Amino acid sequence: MHVKKRVAATSVAAAAAMALSACGGLSTGSGSATGGGSGDSSSPWPTVKVGGVGVQSDIQDVTKFCGTKPIKVGYADGNANNTWRKATIALFRAQAAKCPNITQVMVTDAQNNTQKAISDINSMVAQGVNVIVTFGDAGQALLPAIQKANAAGVAVVPIVSSIGGTPGKDYVDFVSEDVEAYGKTLADWTIKTMKGKGNLVMLGGVAGSAYSQTVYDGVKKAVAEHPDIRLLNSDGYVATDWDVSKTQQVMAGLITKYGKIDGIVSDFGGGSVGGIRAFIAANKPLPVWAANDSNEFASLWYRYHKQYPSYQIATESSRNWVVQAALNKGLAAYNGIDESEPSTYNLQIIEDSTNPKMMPKYDKSLPADAILSSGLTTEQIKALYK
Question: Is the pLDDT of residue 37 over 70?
Fold first, then answer.
């Protein structure tokens, strides 16, 4: 399978990700800088720019790309099993609602089943969906179905977990953060806060996830620069299924196995709260912890940091908002409207309990598992969790 890069990444990381099974695709925030795109007459979607790198503020209002003809849109999720997925779907619906010509919004959940994920996409195409955004947990196994949809004139935009192939040719574009850089940034902060020594663990999602593997690759890069850091899970990320209960069980096992854990890097802040509960239940000091943002993840720091002075946290955005850029690209492609938003988004630390100017934020009026950086308004978050 041919995968081209949008932003710089090592060939080693690419090869490792390509070697993964069909449980997950390559997800590095990287695709093709030289695929089809704006001004490329060879592309099936010549009005959409492929390969740009930028930040969240580069995303434009969806109404610029709505067009006027009736459109059906779909969101094909690989596994809508947690609050991040639910918030992303809610944001997709909210954005679609801004286009009066969108006549139907279809949402599917493959429940981590590759064959169902393929069937969901085929079904959307058969039902006349014009624009499909997909979180492709099934990875490269989805590519033939998406290529078929693309050939039928359906504008498909995968997000976060790549399906391989060539953006701009096999589908409109691939939209994500720079995943490896995300992992390295969180690990760099964690190691610095650990004062450059101690035992570190990286928590990921489902087994075989290319997304979590790429975060892990970034963590390993950071660890390689610090000889006094021991990465306890040296053979790969610890799978938690991005589930709070399983994270608590897994972390309880790691505490029993290793005893002393000084730092955690997690690719899901919402799931991390389960790991924090495991430390509390074991009466163990809470470690330095970096993840993406979550209302409860922040509130737990305020609850326990005085009791455990070593307990510090940092987060990057949970970036549900990449679905906005993906829908924009899909609509622009289908409508033939020029679009030049980034494909890859650079993330930065947005909360840092060691920095008085970046203290963790939580909203007592919102549910524990709300994601404040999701892109949803406070009212939309409250409606989601009713």
Answer: no
Helices first, then strands: H and E counts in the chain = 11, 14
Tell me: the pLDDT tens digits for 49-61?
Answer: 999 999 999 999 9
Burial of 23 (0-12, 13-18, 19+ CB in 10 A): middle
- Token pair of 268, please? 């899901």
Half-sphere exposure of 253 (CA within 13 A, CB side): 10
Return d(Cα 82, Cα 79) in angstroms, integer: 8
What is the separation, in whole angstroms, between the first and last Cα of the chain? 43
In the block, tokens 């004062």 appear at 195
DSSP 201-215: EEEESSTT-HHHHHH
Task: Count other C-beta atoms under 10 Å from residue 70's C-beta.
Answer: 11
Amino acid at residue number 77 = D
DSSP string covering 296-350: HHHHHHHHHTTT-TT--EEEE---TTHHHHHHHHHHHHHHT--B---SEE---EE
Secondary structure string (H, E, C) spanning 238-286? EECCCCHHHHHHHHHHHHHHHCCCCEEEECCHHHHHHHHHHHHHCCCCC
| 237, two tokens | 């990320």
pLDDT band of residue 339 (cuts 50, 70, 90) is very high
CA distance 242 to 298: 18
How far is the CA of 108 from the CAs of 85, 119, 123, 133, 325, in angstroms? 12, 10, 10, 11, 20
Q: What are phi and psi of 217, to 5 degrees?
A: -60, -40
Question: Does the structure show a pLDDT above 50 at 80?
Answer: yes
According to DSSP, the residues that pair with 349 across neighbouring strands are 316
Residue 376 is given by DSSP the state -
